[in-house]
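To fix ideas, we reproduce below one chain and its tokenised fold.
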Amino acid sequence: MSAAPRQLALALAHAESFAREDFLSGPSNAVALALIDAWPGWPHRTVMLTGPEGSGKSHLAAIWAQAAGARLIAARALEEANVPSALATGALVVEDVATGAFDERALFHLLNLAREDEAFVLLTARAAPATFAIRDLGSRLNAIPVVAMAAPDDALLRAVLVKLFADRQLAVDEGLIGYVATRIERSFAAARAAVARLDEEAMRRKRPLTRTFAAEILRATEP
């Protein structure tokens, strides 16, 4: 006798707001948020935000881009030929600057042109790049102020979980939030992954999102 077919959850789109009022502040990101809010009064026109995956770098970059009229480009997509057009508005976000994952000549040209034009540049990275084929680029990047974002504290992690569920139009109680916060790694990436898994499993199994259900799912995925 064949087994009953497994119920598949539909991959429904859900919007994540990058508005200023939806950014959740805590000790781990307060300095970075203060930097964004201080623009255009930056002491240096080029700065770098670093932090782990999902720590809010893109959210802060989007807030700043909206305020500064900045364009956004992935570091891997930056080419020497498109540097002038990328800086056309006088402000630019370059995201995910990772060692070996961008054109060093293009970034060097960008930093030089930005300095000449007195343009603002916001770089984001998980960690500041450490090795370079172009020595002068290394010197230039090492001179850029770096604002680091850390892992969230308990209060911020819980607030992030509430927001992630709300982004999916899911209302959950404090019991579930508290349980999930104590069962996952203290990181934004882990929170995002846990919320996605719980949402998907609740839809697939047609079960309500409760603390008991969360315990059942998260225990099943523990090592």
About this structure: The chain has nine helices and five strands. The chain has two domains: 27-148, 154-221. The longest helix spans residues 188-205. The two ends are 33 Å apart (CA to CA).
